[in-house]
Fold this protein.
Amino acid sequence: MKGKVGKAFVVAVAAMAIMMTGSAWSAETIKVGVLLPLTGSQAKFGEIEKRSYEMAAEEINAKGGVRGMKIELRFEDDTGKPDVGRSAVEKLISRDKVPVLTGGYSSSVTLAATPVAQQFKVPFVISTGSDDAITEKKYDYIFRINPPASEYPNAVKTFLQGVAKDVKTVALLYENSAFGQSSSKSFEKDCGELGLKILVKEGYQAGAIDFKPVLTKVKAANPDMIYMVSYVMDASLLMRQSKELRINPKLFVGGGAGFTLPEFAKSAGAAADGVYSATLWLETLPFPGAKAYFDKFQKKYGSETEYHGAEAYAAMQVVADALKRAKSLTPKDIRDALAATNVKTVFGPVKFISYGKMTQQNKLDTYMVQWQKGELEAVWPKSVATKKYIYPTPNWDKRK
Amino acid sequence: MDVFLQTIVAGVLKGGLYALIGIGMTLIMGVMGIINLAHGQLMMLAMYVTFVLSTMGVDPYIALFIAMPLLFLLGVAIQKFLLNPLIKADTILPENQVLMTVGIGMVVTEIVRFIFTSDYKSVTTTYSERTFFLGNISFSVALTIAFAIALAFTGAMFWFLLKTDLGRSIRATAQDKDAATLMGVNTGRITVITFGLGSGLVAAAGCLLAPVYYVFPDLGGPFTAKAFIITILGGLGSTVGAIFGGVTLGLAESLGATYFGMEFEDIVGLTIFILVLLFLPGGFKRLTKV
């Protein structure tokens, strides 16, 4: 009798032990490090991206996670500063022991953080940092989903060739940052190819109150087109003050970043109308899950998302896909799996290839949008257009 | 010529606003001998007050009369409950009050971020982008009004300091605190009122800036730095100096932006700052003697 109880006890203990280890095993998570600006002046975008990462991870985990394990996101705040970004990545790698990193918002921070990942040999899937140089360093642990800054204006180029053929002169205004300089330099090159003459080229410090000195110069030069590389509130002030000074080019074009955000239209008001912008993504594009992502984000958080969010969501999709395919969960195997990525995301198809000076870079189309009556409409290329473009932009005095 | 005139106009108009931002800091500096490093953050707070009121349909210029008293009270509370206790503790150096203001600035920023998130908010009014033209030179209506109000406030402040009992007491405290105490001035109360006034003035600047700019929690830092530069330019503790300092900074930024390139805007401001420190250590106060 005693023996039987003893045996049963042993079995029970053994069963419990198995159950416990079992549950302990399934509670194990795959840590993914995410570097984003969560405070500081870029926190707005950091928040959109953080929510998108969280949403994507939740969806993946709800479907059973990856390899029976749940994905656990470890966010680190880079505060928009390169040195903080560097130490944040060091912390993620050495303290949290994450086998893979993603995020990377501003170009300056990303440029500072990627060498750390390369040095520790932990793969880093960049979602947003767009300075060309980031993938030009032959780092084999750095991958980038978004196009480099030099390709942002590709759609603008074809628009100038196809529609705005009478544009001959350009004024170029850009934020004095890694992103702004990189974008403006490549746009200058594009102008050379298109035979456009640059009349004014001015950098400015982000966060300025008054752009009138620069805009006055632009007005005096009277260009056919004004091309601006700016974040959202500088963008809004640039347009408001262009309206104040009655600057009337044939078109205003924003080179990505700030000009597509709802805050831009809200803050610039009527001055936003007719402004074109290069963009990387729209919810109306024919990518699987793009519209669903957009709608779900809006429902869940009660605010709008845009291309930065789609980049983050897609980065999570890419990382999860690589984790699924990797031979093991070591950084090395995850890197190899990432290199073989061929997956369709909400941001478009992702495949890391080498072209030009860049390695492990995803190649994507870009698009052109225009604010029409407070709505952001896709206008170029025609295949994805939701409204016809309005060209040239009407004079300020002739608007109601 | 138009480019030059437009640059001057833009610089002077912006300078008026800068002056108003600087006066509050210079006043606090003069009386308490400390730099209030939460100055820009207090302005940010006033801008959020303006923003909240504007969502309820209150015009920024009316919000001025709500934000100013509110910030005055906040300033009074800060001085009374956070800064004055530090003076009383013997072992603590006056620098600790400056450190305290840094802390206050951080707390204010994070509380605002907690309530409003990091989103950019803007206060758009019908006159936000309205302009009038004199010849070919455009004047922003909002900035012109701001300039006029800033001048009015500065004038009022000047009169208050020169002609009223309270103003004289403030100046007495600024000149020699111990002597003022011996003459029967309640210097503890004066510091409290001065911090309130400084906060109220920068609140006014915030309300005037709101329609032409935008607001987000991290806005304080850069404006604290600007206020600091203006205070040094004008001469510590001089209200008239603050006007000169503000307009000089505004003009320098505008001229620098037009003739050197706008990316050097901050560099131009800081270069003048260093030059003044080197060659005119007392600021413009030395020249005006007021």
